[in-house]
What does this fold into?
Amino acid sequence: MSLSLLEGLKFARMDTPLHRADPRAKFLMALSIFASSLLFTNPLALLALLALQIPLILIGRITRRWSKSLRGGAFLAILIFLMNFLTGQGASFSIAMSIRFLCLLSSFSIFFLTTSPDDLGLALEQCHIPYALSFTFTTAVRLVPTMALDAQEIIDAQRSRGLELERGGLLRRVRNYIPILVPLIVCAIRRSLEMAEALESRAFGASERRTSLVTLRMGPRDYILMALSIALLASSIYISRSIQMPSLDALDGMLGLRWRIA
It folds into this structure.
């Protein structure tokens, strides 16, 4: 799996309508796409959901980094297809599961690419989430790209020592990653200990009533985005229950026949 999947979730501050939108509205949008993708097992419907996200990507001007996250997730999408197809689930269903994974990845990639961890923490606090939980979540979001950089540095260092990650069969390749995982876990533990000491030195949790200089306020665009998100979820529920979507059963028969011949 490429590390570009993690890099594609890293926030970069920009001045676009999507970056300025309230994190709660964007989170509702991501949840709406998430729930809608779980309602369908039809590849065409899931492709439509994936296509619906393209305007958001263009508005947020995150096309390059969004495509990087999808390229990073392509390996997992292929693996999902193979695992479903080889266990007899049919080509249409296997393709649908791969597209569903890309839909989920795309929706949360858009959210994290356009939402600052600071704003996300403020939104969680204003939703009355306990500060300890919101701090833990936002810290994890911040550390994902940092750990990706650590992993890339370790990979470069091990390659300079002669480690060949792409050599051998599947099991050999998995074993090749052990010299990457061990120092990466050590780095993560060391970083967490340093952070714990820094938090204790600043009396983290000493005061239960925290105040903030910044207060998030929702505007008309945020309410429009929330209304569109709810409309998308309601439409998905109606379509999945009331409308017969075109199927790809012919593809199942064709690929199933080729699989039996092979």
Summary: The radius of gyration is 22 Å. Residues 51 and 103 are 9 Å apart (CA to CA). Residues 131-160 form the longest helix (30 residues). The chain has a mean pLDDT of 84.
